[in-house]
Amino acid sequence: MKHNAYGYLLLAALGFGCAQTPTTSTPQGPVTDVAQLTEVAPQYASTVTAADLSRHLTILASDEYEGRNTGEKGQKMAAEYIAREFREDGLTGPVQGGSNPYYQTFDLERSQWGDGYMTIGEEKYLMMQDFFVLGSSPFQTEQAVDAVFAGYGIDAENYSDYTNKDVTGKVVVVLAGEPRDSNGNFLISGTDKASDWGNDYRTKRNAATKHGAKAVLIVTGTNESEFNSLTQRYKAYASRPSIGLRNSGNQENAATVFISPIAGAALFGITTDKLFDYTNQVVQAGGPVAANLTAVKDVNIKTSRDASPLPTENVLGFVEGSDKKDEVIVVTAHYDHVGVDSTLQGDQIFNGANDDGSGTVAVIELAEAFAQAKKDGFGPRRSILFMTVTAEEKGLLGSEYYSENPIFPLENTVANVNIDMIGRMDKEHEKTNDSNYIYSIGADKLSSELHQINEEMNQKYVKLKLDYTYNDENDPNRFYYRSDHYNFAKHGIPIVFYFNGVHDDYHQPSDEVDKIIFESAEKVARLAFHVTWELANRENRIVVDSNKK
Question: What is the pLDDT of residues 355-365, one digit of tens each?
């Protein structure tokens, strides 16, 4: 379906559907009195309207923007639109040294696996068939390697496979999973519940990295059928081009390779039965066993990756504060989406109205409101950076780049307010047709005061149902780790994340503007406004007094 952005631009130019600027007597000089600033807050919050959110989103999520895929035409168009709005609303561009002060430009890297194989003596094993590499690899050219068997690759307080092993510069071969005792309980936990050593490959990768290994080869499955089944999703993932931050050339972690049982056993010149007999030895011993396995001498690996730069940009607008201007609140949403899929029948454009066009237009509206308040003499005491980030859909890359290359020092960054998907109902709330809610995630993770502010601003001004379902550290969706706020949280900066939950149109071409409930989006955006206003104008910077997961 086709959306005509030009018609809406014409309406905007004629002034239809726009919120009116509140009438307020202009004070002499910036106001720093908390009571005065609190009194005028609702006037500026009222400029954040469903009509304006709709006006912006109908443009940004139109077919003309081609799904705003990172580095492509539609993303560039969206960046220009957002920067223009920031500039016309009176925000300054804080980025120095570039051609556009509203852009934080940087290169991502588009890459794809090329030639890959492992030779063990006279036998040759192929990448994408006998083994898969996850992440980057140090074997761009063929290299001879020394292999060392290290059991399950565990290095815990009560169980270590690395005792008396020198793996520096070598490839460590380990079994997937974790060992059990004769009663069937896991040796690490002593219960029937597996630990991260069995559930998260990164735990074994980190242990191998700690001990200086060049790569960790995880023998996956107990036979070829299991290996093929377990690695099917890796095969689909690894065969596609990927986008990431540019590799500095330094291999921070040991490379991770999922290898078939046949190839894993061949590294030591044994059968798979002999390799997996190690599990029985551990069961009998009730602890780690020093296996007497000697690696084949003639082992070579090549896993080349072809890469090219992909320029992109975060879009930043800045409202400088008054008496506390060196402290900064960052308000974020991601403006990228996933683009076009030409293999689909029918609609091929993923417009991303909800994800995250809705958050993007909320940031535009908040920026306009705060800029107007400053023009009227009621500017924030602390500075506010409004930032729409790129490449969230590629792995939170735009916010990660900012957190590693901040325009304003992270130690001066008070909090991050992140808006990712507002104005829709998820399946749970569709059952009761209740759109008067928002999932609130992360406010209490690092600061009890931010959680309290979020609750108080909601109760005082908006009265949404704040749903904390996804704030539970045991929630399997782990949404706390899945949007841009996390790149601030991991640096100890308090965050609050607003999210309407997942629905059937999530990451589908059907995520369209006509399905947005703009009245609901307005309420969430106003909550984000009031929380940001309070963070910017309160006397004391919020405390960091928690460290929850």
Answer: 999 999 999 99
